[in-house]
Write a structure and sequence with these properties.
546 residues; alpha/beta; Rossmann fold; 2 domains; ten-stranded mixed beta sheet; three-stranded antiparallel beta sheet; 20 helices; 13% strand; globular; Secreted tripeptidyl aminopeptidase; protease; Serine_prot/Carboxylest_S33
């Protein structure tokens, strides 16, 4: 589930979702997917990101699937979903197709397929093809929604703390973004991009693969996709894993308020970790000192952003308070050495005057724009899954209250979601997750107890709704989505379930956390070039599931 992290959660237009969904999908029979070589730039991206784990770039395949824009009109306008298949390595037929989704909404799933395959155990590689897909509107799917690539040019206006000036600026900026989205949507995609539309697409994918059942791994928002699929199409669920669980009762306004609290707690914990290693980072020996440094820096950047021009390309980059917050938020998504060390080094670079490293770690382009596809789809989905409060007074009241105790994310999260105040497409009514007498009783969930993006209370809500599900909780862990994150206990349960169908056997199972990382032996706060530092920063965020 996206919260901000670089400027991820989400229903059906009628309350009787269980009845309407299957009948609409039965009216469309997709063609079989024809697999072929992927585009060279995509293969290169797979190579650069994942071949260090397994040479997936040599085997990944691409395919396209045409589906109805509107499933109520199966013979009408078609759109195209981009799929990938990373084929199993065993002999004979595969045990099945593991369809995967990384979350968002708006996350690119075509690339997530080879990633999951590369991280799978040898036994899972032998057994399963992994199927990734870019959901409607996302990535290589056609059309792909992009509204205003210049929306994130740095430095952006300060998120503020609910002050009159910031509110005025951001309400206008957010309204401008919704207007831009309305202008670029030529076929009415924004009226057909709810979670339930993507769920019907998943059913079309199952049919196109000729699979009797859908075997599925969903992370973050992908857990909501999976749970809605299980509610709408319960009889075609095979094995289903939900990792980093959305709370269905809180979609989507309350879910974002819940995030604000836990992200703030995780960031304070991170500041304490930096203080523990003051001999490395030199930012203060106590949590309060490091925390004070961060918030003073954020205030300074409001009037004195840091600029740096890459000497090799001539491109200009900048860090203001928004860019700093968006980037370092990743440290609250995942507890890892590379992330925690990388951002601590970046903060230290500001203190020592190393602009190249500081801007390379936290900065964004000042001109030319950036890909806004994920942000556009995030809003297109969540703003229409359910009606958000239309009263700015309610938004203001709720967020002023939370910001008093939890100031890290609150107002950045407001403006990330503010397009929902004026979104041009009509909102629907969410599916009542779990309300189906035929609901499968074999679903397996995973959750870190201190997950900020999808807090534990939401996972417990999901668990209560999905009768018969079993939930694995990693106690004390602050990582969002815990499969393939270094826990042998977690990955063994994941493997055993997909290979044999066996689950732990009790409603809730607890496994131990991994503990905090330690700084690398050779930590340096000096960058060789902005390009090298920026590339490293980009790879840090690539390993964060939202």
């Amino acid at each position: 589930m996206a919260a901000v992290a670089g400027l991820g959660l989400t229903g059906l237009g009628t309350a009787s979702a269980q009845a309407a969904g299957p009948s609409a999908a039965r009216g469309f029979d997709p063609a079989a997917v024809k697999w072929h070589a992927c585009p060279a730039d995509f293969v290169q991206q797979v190579h650069d990101l994942y071949d260090g784990l397994y040479p997936v770039s040599k085997i990944v395949q691409c395919g396209e699937l045409q589906v109805p824009l509107d499933y109520a009109k199966p013979s009408g306008t078609k759109i195209t979903l981009q799929l990938t298949r990373t084929p199993h390595t065993g002999t004979g037929a595969a045990k099945g197709d593991m369809v995967v989704n990384p979350g968002g909404p708006g996350g690119g799933g075509a690339l997530f397929g080879p990633r999951v395959f590369a991280q799978n155990s040898a036994a899972l590689k032998d057994a399963y093809n992994v199927i990734g897909f870019d959901p409607r509107g996302v990535g290589m799917s056609v059309p792909s929604l992009s509204c205003d690539p210049n929306y994130t040019n740095a430095p952006r206006p300060d998120y503020g703390t609910g002050d009159r000036a910031s509110v005025s600026v951001w309400l206008k900026k957010s309204k401008g973004y919704t207007d831009a989205c309305k202008k670029v949507d030529k076929i009415g995609l924004m009226n057909h991009i709810k979670t339930t539309d993507s769920v019907r697409d998943m059913e079309s994918i199952r049919k196109a693969l000729s699979d009797k059942k859908l075997d599925y791994y969903g992370a973050s928002y992908g857990t909501y996709l999976g749970s809605v699929y299980a509610t709408m199409f319960p009889k075609t669920v095979g094995r289903m894993v939900l990792d980093g669980n959305v709370g269905p009762s809180d979609v989507w306004y309350d879910a974002n308020l819940n995030q604000d609290v836990q992200f703030d707690k995780n960031m304070d914990y991170y500041f304490g970790w930096i203080a523990k290693y003051d001999s490395v980072y030199h930012l203060g020996t106590t949590q309060s000192t490091v925390r004070s440094f961060f918030y003073k820096l954020r205030a300074t950047l409001k009037t004195k952003p840091v600029y740096y021009t890459d000497p090799s390309s001539g491109e200009k980059f900048a860090v203001g308070p928004d860019e700093l917050t968006d980037a370092i938020q990743n440290a609250a998504y995942r507890r890892s050495q590379s992330l925690w060390n990388g951002y601590a080094v970046g903060l230290g670079a500001y203190k020592t005057g190393d602009a190249a490293t500081f801007v390379g770690t936290f900065g964004a382009q000042t001109t030319g724009g950036a890909d806004d596809n994920e942000f556009a789809v995030y809003n297109a989905v969540q703003c229409t899954d359910v009606q958000w409060p239309k009263s700015w007074a309610k938004w203001e009241r709720d967020n002023v209250r939370i910001n008093r105790k939890h100031p890290f994310l609150t107002w950045s999260n407001v403006w990330f979601n503010a397009p929902c105040l004026t979104w041009p497409a009509k909102a629907g009514t969410p599916v009542d997750v779990g309300r189906n007498r035929d609901l499968p009783r074999n679903i397996l969930q995973f959750e870190g107890s201190e997950d900020a993006a999808t807090p534990l209370a939401g996972a417990l809500d999901m668990h209560r709704r999905l009768k018969g599900s079993q939930l694995v909780i990693q106690d004390g862990d602050r990582t969002h989505c815990i499969v393939h994150r270094g826990s042998a206990a977690v990955d063994a349960i994941f493997d055993r379930y997909f290979l044999t169908g066996e689950r732990p056997g009790q409603s809730i199972t607890h496994v131990p956390q991994l503990g905090d990382p330690v700084p690398p032996a050779q930590t340096t706060a000096k960058a060789k070039s902005l390009t090298a530092t920026a590339t490293n920063a980009a790879r840090l965020t690539d390993d964060v599931i939202r």
